[in-house]
Amino acid sequence: MKSKSWLSVLLVSAGIALADEAAMEVIPLVNRPASEVRALLAPLLDADDRVIDNGSSLIVKSAPARLAEIEALIQKLDTRLSNLLISVLQTSSKTAAELNAEARIAASPNTIQMRGMVGNTEDLRNRQQHQQLRTLEGQPAHIKTGQVRPVQNYSVYSSAYGNSVIGNTQMMEASTGFAVTPHLTGNQVLIDIEPWSDRFQRNGNMDTQSAHTSLRANLGEWVEIAGNADAEQAESSGFNSFNRSTEKNVLRILIKVDQAD
After folding, report:
1. pLDDT at 232
2. What span, in angstroms and rounded, lies between the C-alpha atoms of 258 and 261?
3. 233: Cβ contacts below 8 Å, ≥ 6 apart
């Protein structure tokens, strides 16, 4: 009788061991890279779960019941990537609030339609550069436009025979563009962006503005990344006169992300 009891215990223990034995499965991905899905899974895994990035698939090792749960979750995370249209505006005459107000008026059901620039558009000192690109969410992308000009450099060398000046021509590029990686989260987008803007000056120097930031924005709304203000002030006075002039040039960098599907 005692031997039968021990046999029953052994059989029950073996059954529990077989039930708890880990199973392994290779789960192919259709839409998203394995590294992205694995990063989303990591906080949800138990201590005994193992998920390995295999490029276009995930290798999952877990208990059979748990494996089915992980596979179902992977199928939900492996959704189709959205196409995004990213617009970057570098301007000295517009603000994010003004652009969003114009968009709301243009989209209203009323008969009044307002498009284009609001206010005085004849200021020749206004600087504006508008760039757009399409990319998939989660994928890095960049765009760059510019021009190349020859710049003359001079060097002075001293010797026993006097000074000599040697000149050489160097090609310099002034470009405007941005590098961006967007991540879509519902009706909002997480953006890691690095815009820049170069401009040749009359004296041969180059004016450069750049920024690097990460931000969260609503789809379809303009937000300001950075701004730069240059102010100049001059004063003069005489026996019977006083003149004063002030000049301020603000260059804003604005971004908007739209879903292009």
Report:
1. 43
2. 9
3. 244, 245, 246, 247
